[in-house]
């Protein structure tokens, strides 16, 4: 989320956080068809940054995407960040990724969130990432337009590279 916000600020492009659309108060989920409709409408804009990875709308996003950022960070880095972010939300820290707009920290049980998100990281590493990369390729997005963030320090460089590429596209 920080990377997408930094890129949006740098390029003057609006950022949409898919979590803000999908999650309703109390962690309820938006109906899939409504979710797809909203995302489709957002993707018809000339310039946009979509933050998040939801299989149920990936086809819509990739059909209009010009660039993709994928994360392949080490599992321990991911789990550590999950713990810090989730605990930080509960404690009101400002420098952590915020919850979806409609959800409050008191509605995010710490242990359950860490366990759920840690399992999601492991699923992602066991095959989801390969499937996502295949879908990006099938969507016709050229390899030069795909940035793979594999170390925490790569994110800043990725913003610089994508900002330069975006300036060439405009």
Keyword list:
7 helices; 170 residues; two-stranded parallel sheet; mainly alpha; two-stranded parallel ribbon
Can you put this structure into words, describing what you see?
With 170 residues, the protein is mostly helical. It is 58% helix and 8% strand. The chain has helices at residues 2-11, 18-22, 32-43, 55-64, 75-91, 110-138, 154-169, and strands at residues 15-17, 49-51, 68-71, 146-149. The chain is globular.
The total count of strands amounts to 4
The percent range for helix content is 55-70%
> Main sheet, how many strands, which sense, barrel?
2 strands, parallel
Q: Based on CA inertia axes, which overall geometry fits?
A: globular
- What kind of oligomer do you see? single chain
User: What gyration radius follows from the Cα positions, in whole Å?
Assistant: 16 Å
Side by side, the strands of the main sheet go 1-2
| SSE string, helices as H and strands as E | HEHHEHEHHEH
- How far the N terminus sits from the C terminus, by CA atoms, comes to 23 Å
- Uncertain segments are none
């Amino acid at each position: 989320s920080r990377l997408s916000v930094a890129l949006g600020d740098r390029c003057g492009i609006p950022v949409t956080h898919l979590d803000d659309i999908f999650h309703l108060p109390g962690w309820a989920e938006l109906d899939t068809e409504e979710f797809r409709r909203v995302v489709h409408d957002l993707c018809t804009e000339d310039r946009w940054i979509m933050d998040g990875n939801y299989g149920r709308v990936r086809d819509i996003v990739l059909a209009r995407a010009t660039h993709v950022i994928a994360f392949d960070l080490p599992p321990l880095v991911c789990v550590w960040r999950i713990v810090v972010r989730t605990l930080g939300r509960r404690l009101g820290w400002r420098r952590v990724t915020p919850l979806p707009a409609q959800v409050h920290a008191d509605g995010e049980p710490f242990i359950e969130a860490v366990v759920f998100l840690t399992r999601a990281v492991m699923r992602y590493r066991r095959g989801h990432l390969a499937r996502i990369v295949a879908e990006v390729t099938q969507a016709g997005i050229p390899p030069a337009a795909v940035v793979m963030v594999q170390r925490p320090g790569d994110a800043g460089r990725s913003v610089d590279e994508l900002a330069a590429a975006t300036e060439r596209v405009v």
